[in-house]
Amino acid sequence: MxxxxxxxxxxxVTLLLAAGLISxxxxxxxxxxxxxxxxxxxSAPAPTVAAADRVPPVRRSQRNTVEVxxxxxxxxxxxxxxxxxxxxxxxDPTAPALGILQQPEEALSVLPWDSAGNKVNWVRALEDGHxxxxxxxxxxxxxxxxxxxxxxxxxxxxxxxxxxxxxxxKWLGCENCHDRLFVDQAxxxxxxxxxxLQGEDCGRCHGAVSFPLTECNRCHSVPQxxxxxxxxxxxxxxxxxxxTAIVCEG
Length: 250
What we know:
With 250 residues, the protein is of the alpha+beta class.
């Protein structure tokens, strides 16, 4: 039998296996996808689950509420999450100078643990005094931090985006973003996930030098149910343009 024929005969099996994996991933019933059980083959009985072990149905509002893990949960780090320089796929393991470089585990394991990126919570590391980066190259450079938080409503049931200026301006000067990346005017920035995934807007840093874009709940961290409460706070101002943005002091 030719190789082409063998590949063609494997097609239905491969498709059936793929359908089974997809159904398992999304919680579908494979019998419903296939139109019912095969003729003459009885359906397997559903496993008996004790009442105490049953998971209650999740309402839509609950599914869209993302709980950001507390700092205590982030502090639980697994053993050796960092690869050695010889095994990271970036350095030449035969290089004679490799031995004089500091290993990532030695440098990073003493800092607050995080679950993504390079496994360091850099905001906590700065706030807790673990690191003290230089804020300026020249003494005459004025350093400005801005304690303003923006909540961006992208619509639907998607959680609000919370953007804290304070944490960003502890690391970056205002000119890093304004007005080269973001115009300092409400409604003037057509931010979208498509642009971000293309490396524009927030994607200039996130996914490169900041936590990756797979950590959706880091930005989309505020449930829609809190929108009205936030908008009523005296320190907040609501601006409606293409998307609703709430600007709050602090």
